[in-house]
Amino acid sequence: MIAHPERKYRAFQPVALPDRRWPDARLTHPPVWMSTDLRDGNQALIEPMNVEKKLRLFDALVAIGFKEIEVAFPSASQTDFDFVRRLIDENRIPGDVTIEVLTQSREDLIARTFEALQGARRAIVHLYNPIAEPWRRLVFHAGRDEVKALALKGTRLIRQMADAHPDTEWVFEYSPETFSAAEPDFALEVVDAVSEAWGPTPDAKMIVNLPATVEMATPNTYADQIEWMHRHMARRDAIVLSIHPHNDRGTAVAAAELALMAGAERVEGCLFGNGERTGNVDLVTLALNLYSQGVHPRLDFSDIDAVRHVAEECTGLPVHPRHPYVGDLVFTAFSGSHQDAIKKGMDARRDDGVWEVPYLPIDPADLGRSYDAIIRVNSQSGKGGVSYLLQHEHGFELPRRLQIEFSRAIQRVSDATGSEVTGDDIFHLFSGEYLEQTEPYGYRGHRVASGDGGVTIEAELTVSGQPSTVSGRGSGPLDAFVAALGQPVALIDYQEHALGSGAAARAVCYVEVRVANGAPRWGVGVDRDIVAAALRAILSAVNRHLAAEAGRQQPAPAQAGR
Ligand SMILES: CC(=O)SCCNC(=O)CCNC(=O)[C@H](O)C(C)(C)COP(=O)(O)OP(=O)(O)OC[C@H]1O[C@@H](n2cnc3c(N)ncnc32)[C@H](O)[C@@H]1OP(=O)(O)O
Ligand SMILES: CC(C)C(=O)C(=O)O
Structure pTM? Predict the structure, then answer.
């Protein structure tokens, strides 16, 4: 980088629009969507798509619900020409879908374009020529009049050829390419001249597409340019005002949204933002942004992974894991406080169906994603995430203080390995830490008898591997069992719930105990029989205490809160 960028780069001069209206507008309905994946997206690939890939992507775009699809620049290559022919000859274009093709303002190219479109039921012919000053000066060595004349020449040629093929319903689209970099008065002059030459009517509109061929400035600047044109263009009621934002500054989605607020009615872009350089505007993000505001985009992304799969295979470009709405990680929280909030939000889901889960702007299930990945655990995670996975994947609903105790064990592992701890890892650790604590005391069976206002228990145990029978008396089975153990155990907390349902259901018990003057410690037991589960839990807690005391293990003591 250079020390004085102001000597090398000039700030963009925005159009003057002090009474702009777009900031108060709201997006309440979807625009007309036009996918240019097969044209602008395709021209930007290292290896452009072959006909088979184009057919596959075309079918996917139709299935998503696009009604206008720019399928090719047919005069540019035999592949593109052949592709258009296959679509028409094989009758592959549904009745409610219109194909679009692009051409420069050159007679040979326009003639070839019409050749490609022979027999189409309806087609949009899209003419472009660059109009901004640097392109006029550097690329075309032409003045304003010559550039306008080039646009008019192409328009008239297309009119002639369209009139010569009346069996097709022709729609004309004109793009003053490099509009975003052009002087507004000149853009207006060219567009008005073109629309006058074409002669659109409210019943037979033409499309005026105002591209941010190169994104030049902040999105509000583009919105001002669009509103200015929207307010000044002649024959406005006979024109569909379209936008075509590129993403050079990374703000194409914002620019498109503000431009729609400013009066645009139609958007051209690509799936997942493929396209020249940094890409065209990402139509998936735009559509799902609308959806998240309660506006149905009329595009179907209910199996977004399938759409991604087709796009990746056809373009050869991977979708980034953080890509909005579709990336592998976008519905995943690793950090503790986010996980805590998501878990609470998921637990409190509302009966009226209104989505209100913190940190998740839309329900992953609406896009065909499962909830499996919304919480993943690493060293940034906390008790909320760990207990969510245990609950979601294995059914254990840990009491809060046990969550705290156990998440410390997980933290030690994730800190030591520096890696993700999966749901299976967590269950494995949980099992080892609580369910498999059978030394020195292991449970084999029990009998309970009531009478004389109390309970007597006789329990079959293993003590350091040796079978042993102990018995005791108390106010209830747990009390009696503690007495039978002969250990100074005080029961602090007890919770239970069913694990699974039906014939396979088991009970899980969580007990928090203090043995002698030791720190409070949790134990967990699972059994088909609820009393057996509780006895196993007590043994788990006592064994963990003894192990800690003996220094053979270092389980973290529980502390209230953190
Ligand atoms: C912003 C966009 O994305 S626009 C779409 C751009 N897409 C593409 O470029 C992909 C398809 N294009 C192609 O395959 C080729 O460029 C073709 C087949 C169209 C033309 O190829 P060639 O005839 O070899 O020309 P090449 O691309 O080198 O040409 C540029 C010439 O076209 C002229 N030109 C560029 N745009 C236009 C236009 N819209 N209308 C008329 N002439 C134009 C240039 O001034 C230049 O003329 P010159 O040779 O007299 O200096
Ligand atoms: C042809 C036009 C619309 C284009 O692709 C652009 O300006 O980016």
Answer: 0.85
